[in-house]
Give the backbone structure.
Amino acid sequence: MKSQPIAIPVCVLIVLFAATALPTALHPATPLEKKIQALTDKLTPELIAIRQDIHCHPELGLQLPRTSAIVADYFRRLGLEVRTGFAESGVLGILKGGKPGPVVAMRGDMDALPITEETDLPFASKDRTTLDGREVGVMHACGHDIHTALLLGTAAVLSAMKADLPGTVLFVAQPGEECCDGAKQMIADGVFKDIVPEAFFAYHVDDTLKAGKIGYASGFMSANVDGFTLEIKSDGCHGASPNLCVDPIVVGAQIVIALQVMVSREIGVHDNTVVTVGSFHAGSAPNIIPRSAKLEVTVRNYGEAQRKVLQDKITRLVSNICEAAGATFDLNYQFGTASVYNDPALVLEALATAARVLGGKSALVEQKPEMGGEDFSYFGTVAPAVMFNLGVVPPDRDTTAVHSPTFVADEASIPVGVNLMANIIMDHQMKPAKNPKKK
Ligand SMILES: [Zn+2]
Ligand SMILES: [Zn+2]
């Protein structure tokens, strides 16, 4: 898990931001930029075809035999060193540049969702699978097919420029983002055992921005996905004699309200927190006080310190309310995926590249952190990391909701993402080392 990052004061950020001198107007492209653009343009039809093929044949969780084989074969054809089997289907492609330099990584996640596609795309998924005994459709409704195409495209462009590339680039194709903390498992399986990046980059598609726009947040970008289950226990008794037993429904109701009061009265206004009781089950008839009430709750917040504060407050609140009512209980509190923290210095560095490559700051949209979860956070424990949001809203729509059966992504975003990431990595690799060794 990530330790609490050190907050960079606003004044320092302003100085850093000014120092990067973001260009506001188009500038003549450098020879390297022209080369990256030309390679991207040439590759785009192939990348779109690969994306459509992956979209048409989505796979769930950690078991992605078809998708990971496509990725591994592509990397091999580029001449990358390929390692497989991390988190079952994860693939590592290693590109060694022609000049000395640091190791940097890019991540693309590959898994789909158990959603039945309802688009009329010619390459819409018709695939179905059985999940928990139910037959469901499978769909790339979170844009991970686009992420995979971006990973392959960036690898292809930088491979073609190997002679100009300092250092090493790791291309990390990850399974199981939606369900299984695949990033954590890839690390546990030793993906960086003998080659550790010093910076990590990724994209996620953004369902609020048009293609050509890049969204970013400095600092926290997604939330800790924590939560708990709670069972309040009673001996049960007749509904007409409530004095004879603890009523777990009333105790549960008190806890539901107390959780909301805790958020509004005990949590600082800038410590964004959401506590949602998403499930509350108890009872079978109007005249029976049941023997238990079960609650399932999600708790969202940012940073390691705050998640522990919330766990302590919630444990105290549940214990005290149950004790006051004379109820016994089982509380199972769990820390899930940690919040993604975008390293502010790396954000500024990449934004300078983005402003230059995308023709000015107007393509860059500063965004508020989200309360959703993203397991890219685990790669942020390996190295300073940045995840950018890539606009994919089609021109004829105002929005395109991820995780919905009608999600569609504008493929014009693919060359935008590949061109930008190849430039971000090339710039990062060509940057003078922070602490050059003294001669
Ligand atoms: Zn998703
Ligand atoms: Zn996603």
